[in-house]
Amino acid sequence: MGLGKTTGSTRINRYEQKTSATSFESLGELAEALQVPTAYLLADSAPMADAILELGKANDQQQAKLALVLQGLHDDPALVKALLKVLELPKRERDKARKALLQALDQREP
Question: pTM value?
Fold first, then answer.
């Protein structure tokens, strides 16, 4: 994919103007070179790209669990709000909140 400055600029401009497209194979090669998941390059927004990068750091089992968490959060906006508040806490307070939550869940009847 080595291109001269003029050719590269012209080609990139065509991609940006959506008058040209790249192949999935080239997209995969670009993602590999950038060390990001291919899906990252196809994200519709910066937050989606950020989420893809984080999911890409997880193994398959963790990704499956995180997908379930995202589905649950999507269905419960109040839970999202509460979790964001916890995540904004200083680390020490966040650790206390996590411990209290885990204790409360352990005390629940199955």
Answer: 0.64
